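wait is this the right file?? whatever heres the structure
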């Protein structure tokens, strides 16, 4: 009996916890429900916004504590499809608002539209805006943003536009949001946006996606804008298409007047013409950059000299694994800093014409050359193809030389992984010719892992394997299928 009583005395009831302890518990309830976000770093920071509804019904103390710490706990009134927004605004405490309409497949009901416009009228309480609406609904709500939003921290606007539509959007000139920290805008015209956002020096994420050709701006203008954002951690610049060559030449021929250091930038994404990026990179320093994601449109020539110099600067651009993926629309090079990480350190892709094999190998050689000295730490290289059948190309000396340039870029690779589609192509490129050492290409290679059966392995691999064994550096051939 004494033991039972003694154990009962050791119990702690939640109502004896102080306010700080309860707030910490509530904060972890919120964190546990947050999405982890998209892999590219441009998530919409949404979780279950109703997480606090039941907690405020437990007791008066909890209700006062949560409402009194609404900002710290990210407590919102969630204005979204089907929500009784008018009743929420009339009968709830004056909590921050999240306007959240992510629905490109259907239009708004009349009641939803009224509720949404009502929420915009409370612009002094709006903390987050997430809008992805059908085109016919987009303009009216963008116009409703022509006011000052003193609490707004997150802005995501994406009107769905078909590729054939020549449509762009502009924020009202009267829009002001001095405390914005995250901006994701698609199909919007600049620099009017930056005029509206001029006070927003606390930005940590800026994503300008699908910039219309009609709104093309110079690299120098971009640098002037981001120089006003010293806390920026994530930057995405994505053009919708290549501009008129004369317009692009006009912008690129302008003298570069701005040199910028972004001391906190960790993630940079660019999609557009290589000439634009080549003009931009020499003028910007990013000492803490961890992830670089670059996509070039289909062009006859792509210059990568400044990109190579750029990625050679930071010591944290060192990869242990790399992959080359050949697909219908182009070729992709990806470098991963350490085994098991979900973040890629380097991602470079080039658009090509459909399955133009020689052109794809050419761009693969160019991109691997970009890795420069950082490729020397790669020990695991994987070649991938979205075709599963064995691909037997017509032998082409230029393609053969380019394949060898690809492989020579990775002089420390221990394991090379090959798809079935490339077995014939690579077996020819690994051939040892008179007076040549098998160590010319992949001198540290220990294993070839082929995603194919033994019957699919070309006989032309035998000469390479025998030559390696004769030099005292045998290579193991392993078939996965």
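ok assuming it is, sequence goes like this
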């Amino acid at each position: 009996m004494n033991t039972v009583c003694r154990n009962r005395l050791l119990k702690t009831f939640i109502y004896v916890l102080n306010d700080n302890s309860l707030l910490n518990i509530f904060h972890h309830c919120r964190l546990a429900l947050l999405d982890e976000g998209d892999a590219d770093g441009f998530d919409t920071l949404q979780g279950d916004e109703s997480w606090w509804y039941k907690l405020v019904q437990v007791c008066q103390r909890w209700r006062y504590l949560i409402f009194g710490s609404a900002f710290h706990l990210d407590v919102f009134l969630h204005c979204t499809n089907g929500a009784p927004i008018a009743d929420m605004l009339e009968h709830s405490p004056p909590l921050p608002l999240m306007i959240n309409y992510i629905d490109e497949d259907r239009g708004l009901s009349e009641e939803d539209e009224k509720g949404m416009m009502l929420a915009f009228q409370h612009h002094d309480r709006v903390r987050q805006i997430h809008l992805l609406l059908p085109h016919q609904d987009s303009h009216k709500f963008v116009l409703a943003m022509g006011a000052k939003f003193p609490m707004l921290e997150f802005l995501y606007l994406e009107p769905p536009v078909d590729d054939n539509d020549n449509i762009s959007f502009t924020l009202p000139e009267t829009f002001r949001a001095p405390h914005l920290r995250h901006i994701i805008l698609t199909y919007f015209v600049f620099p009017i946006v930056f005029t509206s956002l001029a006070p927003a020096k606390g930005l940590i994420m800026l994503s300008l996606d699908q910039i219309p050709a009609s709104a093309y701006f110079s690299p120098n203008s971009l640098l002037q804008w981001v120089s006003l954002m010293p806390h920026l951690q994530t930057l995405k610049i994505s053009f919708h298409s290549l501009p008129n060559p004369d317009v692009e030449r006009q912008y690129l021929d302008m003298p570069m007047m701005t040199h910028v250091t972004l001391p906190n930038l960790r993630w940079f994404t660019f999609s557009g013409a290589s000439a634009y990026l080549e003009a931009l990179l020499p003028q910007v320093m990013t000492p803490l950059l961890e992830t670089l994601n670059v996509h070039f449109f289909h062009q006859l020539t792509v210059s990568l000299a400044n990109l190579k110099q750029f990625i050679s600067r930071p010591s944290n651009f060192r990869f242990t694994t790399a992959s080359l993926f050949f697909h219908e629309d182009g070729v992709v090079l990806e470098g991963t800093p350490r085994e098991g990480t979900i973040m890629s350190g380097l991602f470079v892709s080039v658009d090509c014409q459909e399955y133009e094999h020689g052109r794809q190998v050419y761009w693969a050689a160019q991109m691997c050359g970009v890795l420069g000295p950082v490729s020397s730490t790669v020990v695991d290289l994987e070649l991938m193809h979205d075709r599963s059948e064995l691909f037997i190309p017509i032998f082409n000396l230029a393609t053969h030389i380019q394949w060898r340039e690809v492989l020579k870029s990775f002089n420390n690779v221990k394991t090379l992984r090959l798809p079935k589609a490339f077995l014939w192509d690579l077996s020819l490129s690994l051939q040892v010719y008179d007076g040549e050492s098998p160590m010319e290409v992949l001198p540290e290679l220990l294993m070839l892992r082929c995603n194919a059966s033994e019957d699919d392995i070309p006989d032309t691999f035998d000469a390479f394997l025998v030559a390696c064994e004769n030099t005292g550096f045998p290579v193991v051939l392993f078939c996965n299928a």
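Residues 19-33 form the longest helix (15 residues). so i think its the right one actually
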